[in-house]
Amino acid sequence: MSLQLLLFDFVDWSSASGIPQIAYAVSTLFRLAWIVICLVLFAVLLYQSASIFLKFLTYPSAIVTSLNYGSIPFPVIYICNSNPLRLDYIDQYKTTDFKDLYNWANQYSAMLSSNWGDVSPDDYGINNGLDRYDKTLRGRETIVLLMAQLTTTQLDKAANKASAFIRNCNFNNAECNSNNFTSYYDATYGACFIFNIDERRETQRAGSNYGFHFLMVVNQVDPKGNRIFLPVTDSAGVYISIQPKGGDPAMETFGIGAPVGQNTQIGMTYVSQ
Ligand SMILES: *[C@@H]1O[C@H](CO)[C@@H](O)[C@H](O)[C@H]1NC(C)=O
User: Where in the sequence is the signal peptide annotated (predicted)?
Assistant: First the structure.
């Protein structure tokens, strides 16, 4: 068998579509043209194979992101009045349980009335404050120290009451009220209130409609114009701390201040891994 016959046999039976054309070309010119076309296409084949191989060597990866919606645990909400005790209740026990707090509150009020000037007598170092800011800070510290000397039973007499403080609330479109809150004592803010202490509530959807709404009453003066809270009045409002399961309210550090007369919205993002 000659080489020519062998080659002819190959191109005749080849399933690569251009090659049989070489065998059956009508003239040498066509045959040359088909040879050139086949060589060019073979070069393209090599080029594509090489580029696929090189791409493989970069080890590309595909990441598929999927969002799985489901209910997630709702955090625990801690709420404190920025004024820890009510002056009108302190007034009722001014010679017994709250003797010191009452004296201090009177001297502090006198200092406020004299436009942050010196007072006499000054049993609690109010005059040592350098300026308005320093005096307010010292005032807050004095309340903390004086409160720390009281027992819970004594504190209860002048603490904010849930029923007077929490006007109404709503979670996930379900009504709730002050009975849905539990109270605890914070060293700085006195009686504070907790929603979802049992951590059983869940939320299914994002957005403020499916969250927790509440209305607080934070009075500073009674209808007759008398101060009804301790007279550190620079920041009337509430402090709110939102913590995940088992978190620490850490009101002093993480508390978010909400002023009176305002609608405060707090949004959270939830990340799971
Ligand atoms: C509030 O408490 C009541 C009575 O225990 C309960 O039926 C209701 O579901 C609670 N509300 C919320 C929003 O948890």
Answer: none
